[in-house]
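Prompt: I keep going back and forth on a fold encoding question. Comparing notes only helps if you start from a blank page. Show me how you would write down a chain together with its backbone fold. Please set it down just below, with no commentary around it:
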Amino acid sequence: MFLKLAKESYKQAKEFVPETESDNSTDITLEWLLAFLEEYSPVTKYVFNHEVERKMARCAESIISSPVSKDKEVMTALRLWAQMVAEYALEVTDEATKQAYKDSGVKKVIWLSFEDSRRCKTCKDRHNKVYDIDKIPPKPHIGCRCYVMPYDEKINEISNERNFLRNNLPKKYKDIRNVGKDISNEELKEIFEFAERHDVQIGHAANPTGGFETYCGNIDILKNIITEVEIQQNSLLFANLNTKNVILVYDNVLGYEGDPSKIDVGAFAVRNGRIITLNKFMFDDSDFLIKEYNSAVEEGVFVKDTTYVNIIAHEFGHIIDGKSKSLYSKTVDILEQLAFYNGMTTEEFIYQNISKYARSKNDKEIYGELIAEINSLLYSKPDSDIIKLLKEKGVIP
C-alpha cells in the first residue's frame, strides 16, 4: 500500500511542476520505501519498522495475559495499528512529493495550512512561510494536514493583480470581463465555514494574486461549487476510491497554448493530483463564467444541459481516470455496442451523446476526457440510456 501511494504521489507532484533543464527522476522502489521506513520520524517519535515489532509484541502479550474476553485487546491493537498506518501514509506522501519537487529543480517551497477551527497555533504561524527544499521543518504533530507547494520567486514578487494580468494575459487578448468587487472578510469567513460544514478542504495558492481571499465573484457561485465537491466526494461512484481530502484552490491557471507564463483564458479549472484549482480569471466575473460555460456546452466541450457546477464533476472524472484504469475498457466496450445499435461509429456516438471534447483529444488524453464526461453525464442525465447500461453491466454502481 505504501509503495503504491509513494509512486502515485511522486508522479502527481512531478506533473504539477513544469519540466526544467535540471529535471531528474528517482525510481520509487521498494528499496526506497524500506530505507525511508527505517529512518527515525520526528513526528511519531519512532522508527516505523521498530514500532511494528513493538506493537505486535504488546498485542500478543495483552491477549495472552488477559483473564477475560480478548475482544477489547484485539480492538485496541487494531485501532492503534490503523492510527500508525494512517500517519505513515501521510509521511510517505510528503516524502515522495518532496523528492519529486527536488528532482524537478524546485529550490524553495511555501508552507500552507487550512484556515479552520482544527488548525493549531504552530500550523497557523507557519502558514505562507517559505523554506529551502532541504530545510522544511517536520510537521508539528500527528495528523497534521499542512502541505508545501513549489515557491516561484519571480511569480511571487508580483503583488498587484493588475500588473499580473498585464504581464501574463495572452498577446492581443482583449479582456471583456466585468470583475466584481473584492470578497469581504465576513463573506470569506462565511465561505470557509461553509466549506468546513460540507467537509471540503480549502487550499491556498502560492501565488499572492490568487487565493479565495482575492475572489471577486458572487459567493453563491462558490457555495454551489463547494456543495458539488461534497456530492462528488460522497458519491457511490467513488465508494471504493480514495477521493477524500481533495483540496479546492483558487488561482489564475497558467499554460495558455503551452506557455507556462500566460493565463489560460479558456480553462475553467485544472486538477493536479488531489488539488482542483478554480481559474480565478474565469470565476472573478460570475456572469462571464456562466456565459463562457454555456458557450462551451453549445460547442460540445461539456455535456449538454449541464451548468457550471459540472466543472467539478468533470475534474472528479479525471480523479477516477487516475485510479480506475479498468473502467475505460469496460466503458468503451459498451459505447461501441450502443454505437453499433444506432448505426454510428463509436466516435460519432460519443460526439452526439456525450461531448465532442471527450473524443477530440490526443490518444494520451482521450481516456481521461471520456471518463470525465461519463462522470458528468452520471449527474446531469442519470436516466440516460448510456448511464442505465453502464449500471446494468456493473461498470458503475
Observations:
- The chain is about 50% helix and 10% strand.
- The chain has three domains: 2-103, 107-154, 176-397.
- The first strand starts at residue 40 and ends at 41.
- The mean pLDDT is 78.
